[in-house]
Amino acid sequence: MLYVIRRINALQSKVLSLDVPSGLQADTGVMLGGCVRADTTVSFIGAKTGLVTGRAKAVVGELFIAELGVGEAFADLERPVASIFDKPQALEVLPKRGECFHKGESGRATLVGGAAGFSGAIILASQACARSGAGLVSVISSEQTRHLYSVVSQR
């Protein structure tokens, strides 16, 4: 199977994956050895968690969900463990900013983390807060992460 996946990935053609790209674990997003890199994936009935978690974004491409008219029939069998919150939904929920606004008017976030030698997660979290619209991001952390102010301000 790995041979076939490598051949598909070497093609100069558009790749459409049906349900889940071959080699991608549908529940976790873990790539099982080699994985088909799709330009588009059409998943059936509902979104599988593994299509939007882990490193799946690198191989799923544009994701479409084909409900197939059975969504209600399965509603009582299994409850979703997550939901997809996409850009259109975010634009509906997040407040609109005026052209002239102050960082203090755009929300504040205080993050605690980054033990000595483990500053990666707090750096990523602080960048995510800044990029998602927090006007002021504060970090409470170890001495080793005091350089964070420059990381966040470079958004």
CATH architecture of the largest domain: 3-Layer(aba) Sandwich
CATH homologous group name of the largest domain: YjeF N-terminal domain
Overall, the morphology is extended
Give the H and E element order.
HEEHEHHEHEH
Number of strands: 5
Terminal CA distance reads 42 Å
Q: Let me know the largest β-sheet.
A: 3 strands, parallel
Radius of gyration using CA atoms only: 20 Å
Please tell me the total number of domains. 2
CATH C-level category of the largest domain? Alpha Beta
Count the helices. How many?
6
By CATH, the topology of the largest domain is Rossmann fold
Structural class: alpha/beta
Helix percent band: 25-40%
What does this structure look like?
- It is a single chain.
- With 155 residues, the protein is an alpha/beta fold.
- The protein is 27% helix and 15% strand.
- The longest helix has 12 residues.
- It is extended and about 50 Å long.
Compact description:
By secondary structure, the protein is an alpha/beta fold. The protein has six helices and five strands; from the N terminus they run αββαβααβαβα. Its cofactor is K(+).
Topology (SSEs and partners):
Layout: H1 2-10, E1 16-18, E2 40-44, H2 57-60, E3 62-66, H3 71-74, H4 87-93, E4 108-112, H5 120-131, E5 136-140, H6 148-153
Parallel strand pairs: 1-2, 2-3, 4-5
What are the salient characteristics of this protein?
5 strands, 15% strand, three-stranded parallel sheet, single chain, Rossmann fold, extended, alpha/beta
